[in-house]
Each structure stands twice: as C-alpha cells, then as structure tokens.
Amino acid sequence: MTAQITVTEGGIPHNTLMIYGLISSLVGIYLTYLNTVTGTQLFSFFGGLGAVAALIWGSSTIKRLCSYGIGTGVPSAGMLAFGSGVIAMLLATKFGIASPIVALVLGLVIGAILGYIANNILAMKIPVMIQSIAELAAVGALVMIGFTAMTTGSFTFSPLSVIPVTVLGATVNSFGTSLIGGGLLAAIFMLGSIALQHGFNACLGPSEKQDRTLMLTAEVGFLSMLMVAIFSFAFIGVGAMIVSVLISAIGWYYTYAQYITLSKRDAAAWLDSKPIVEAEGH
Amino acid sequence: MVENIVFGIGITALAGALAAVAGAAEDTESDIGSQGDPNSQVQLAPQMGFIHRIFNKAVAGEPPAYGLWCALGAGLAWIFLIKDINPILALILGATIATFVQGVYATSGYLGRTASLAKFGQPVYIDILKSMLSVTMAHAFVAIFTTVAMCYLMNAVLGHPFPLPILGLIWGIALGAAGSATGNPFYGKERQYQNQKFGAGVPISASGNIVRYAEAGQRNSLDNGWFSAKLGGPASGICFGLIVFLELWRTILFEHIAAGWGAIIVGLAVILVFVVIDRWVEVYARKNYGPYTVAEEASS
Questions:
Q1: Do B192 and B118 share a structural domain?
Q2: What pTM was computed for the model?
C-alpha cells in the first residue's frame, strides 16, 4: 500500500494557466533577442524568466496528469518531459530566429507521439494522457531553450556548440568549451526536470492547494535560474551575469518567503520543539 | 605502458575510495530525509492516525535527485575550471553551491508534504526542519564533493572522453541508485517496522504504523541517521565503491585487448560472478533467518 494521491479542486483553470505560461514563456525567450538587436548581453536573464513561466505551466500539467492515479511516479513525468523535450530543443536551435517556436511545435509533436504510444499501445488509458505528454514535452523544450539562452545569450545552434578561444595568439573554434560540447546541457536538463516535478511532488496530499504548489514551482524555478546565472559566468560578460544573478536571487527570495507563508497558512499547526500530538483514537 | 597501467590502477583505487565515502554519505543523507523507499510509509503514517516527528524530505527518488546534485556540482566545477580557477577550489565551490540547492529542496519538500497532510492533523515541527537540515546538508556535501572529485579524476587524469557535467550526471544517478537499492532496506524495511515480526514484510494492517518512539523519547530522523551510519551507509559505500572500482579496473587493464572487447567480456564475467554470489547469499539468508518458508498472504 502506498500513499494515495488526491488532487484538490479550485484555483485557476488549467487551460488559462497553460495559455499564460505559453505566451509569457515565448515572450521571455524572444526578449533575449534584444541582445542581438542592441549588441549587449544584458537581456539574457529574460530567457530564465521564460523558463520559469514554462515550469509553472508544466507543474499544472503534471498535477492534472497525476490526478489519474499514476501513483508516486510524479518525478518520472519531469524526466519524460525533458527527455522528449531535449530532442525538440536541439533540433530547433538550427532554425535561427524561429527556434523557440520550432521548439514548441516539435515538442508538442514528439510529446503527442509518445502520449499516443503510452495511451494506446501500452494501454494506459488515461483521458488527458496525449495532451499532457505533448504539453510536458513542449515545456521541456521551452525550459531548456530558455535556460540555454540565459547561459549563452543566444538560442541558435552555433553559439551553443562553438566558442572562439585564443590559443597562443591565434583564435580557434573550440567545441569542448561550449555549452553543448562541455555537456553543460546535462546540468540544465536536471535543473529543469527536477524543478518541474518538485512543485506537485512536494505538495501532493489531501490538503494540497494550487497557489502553494505553483508558488513552490516558481521558487525552485528561480533557484534553477540562479544556478543558470552562475553558469553564464563562462559565456557572457560579468556585468550581464551580475544582472542575471541579482534578478534570479530576488525572484527566488520573494517566492521562497511567499511559499513559507503559504505553508504556514495551510499547515495543521506550526510547532517548535513540541512532542507528538496524538491523533484521536490512538 | 606498464607505468601507465600502474598509474591508472592507483587512480582507480583512489576513485573507488572516494566512491565508498560517497555511498556511505549518500545513504545516511537520504535516510535522514526519509527519501526514496522509506518515504511512502512516512507519508502514509499520519493518514492512518500515526502522527510522527520524522523528517519527510520529498525530492524525487534518490537517483534523479543525486543526478541533479552531482550534475550541478560538476557543471559548476566545469564553469570554474574553464575560468582557470584552481581545480580543488572549483570542485569545492561546485559542491558547496549544489549543497545549498539540496538544502532549499529539502526544506520545501518537508513543508509541502507536511502542510498537505493538514487534514490528518500532522503539524509542521519547525525544530525538526532546523535540526535535521544542517545534518543532511553536511552529508550531501560529502557525497557530492567525493562524487564530483571522482568524476574529475576520471576526466582529467584517466582521460575519459565525456565532459565533467555528463560524468557528474551519470555517476550521480549511479550513486543514488546504489544507495537506494543497498542502504534503504535497512531503514525502510526493518527499522521503520521494528515492532513487526522480523522479515515479515509490511502487512496491510501495519501500513503506516511506523516506529515513532526512540530508546529515549520520540524518534526523529537523527536517530535514523545514526542507525544508517552504522549499517545502511557502509553497505551502500561498499556497493558504490565496488561499482566504481571494478568499472575502472576492467577498463584500465583490459581495454587494449581485442580492440576494447576485452573490457566488455570482463565486465560480463564480473556480472556473472555477482549474480552467483547474490543468489547464494539470498538462498542462505532465506534458509537461516526469518519466516519466509511459505508465501504469506498479507505481505505487500
């Protein structure tokens, strides 16, 4: 016997959240293009904000999917999202300025195929399965493209895979020190996928509340964004990195404080150094 | 050639030793947080009316969670190495920042799960959070630092073709899996159910009825950490240390035989040897301990 997962009703409808998350995520990622327009790197942090928006949308999707009694397999939904999303994201970076949109579309297509396989061939028979897996793959692709845009200041393939390095006075292109060649995408993958599943995984239970769950997702999203800001140390200027670190740190601190307030609101009691309060009948 | 092999074996032994420390610290850390397999019963207990003072740190399973901590530690170390920071300092900085992330996840996991059990009257014990957190973070730091250092040795000294963050991800997942499979049963299957017949599994009627009182006073997760440090931790350490040592050993010694197939054949042979040992231990244990003679109807 394992812990039962129940999902509480109420709050903002999932479809509204999805539309807000989708639009803010795309807008955020596209705002990093201001880097190219203005010739600076100061706007890289918008990619991280876009990723956080996508994470909040994905967290709501996970809650909807897992309400069909997937059991304690919530974390696997995060892994699945990013595993399918990384294919879409890497392919999409070849499309230049259209990359974020291509990532979204490819994510939806790959996710829909996987959802079809899970639902019809593996016969899991969950009504929202295809839509949810499609959404999750799109979220995975958008989060990764947002975080890579924040790390390198760009979302196209060349800056992600080749870095000019000066060796003995001559400039050569290095693959090994780039975001993809150095394998840093693996760290971004994990930062995104654990953040995506943590909101609902940590808050599941009979007294789960939507605002607290989504606040937690925003909190871990900003925490991942803070780490991505540190990653950008190797790729963009110090000034732009400091802007990214400051914005992520402020976002993280605010959402963390809010999350603790909401937990205090929802908890049965908030005790310090008190013994076990025995439930009635025991 | 021979010098290279001797040097490689030395690094292999060092990596194995680091892995043993990592395994021991990982299992102790996750058991203090009731992560992985023991988690479902800790989560279930209040629903069955058993209010407890055990730290419930729900952050995915151990393999994905350690995949994140180690990939993050390795990724940060990689960034600092690119910026020409001293390798030791880079590894320490990477592990420290990854430990901070682990700590934040641990607090939010405990608060979230406990607040969502409000219906069953499980209070948030804020002193549990305060006193357990530093202990899990300390153990997490040891586990992350040793794993990332081991990955650095593989990459920089043995010339492994994978970059540091990917090695961190792979070995982090392996570390979490080793701790989860080897160390957790000590705590999740036995210590939580000391009040049941030894080896009986968990009967449905006893679900959630975990041990909540300690030798003196009420049990909290530091008691479980003490217990894990004694049994589950060292077992996980031996497991993960052997995995890393044998993996590197077979590669260093046999990769030049038959164009790399030598290492693969030795790897298969090692698996076969362990299958035989495992089966023998299992049969021996069933014969000598516990009531496993007939299949019990009430085991889950």
A1: yes
A2: 0.92
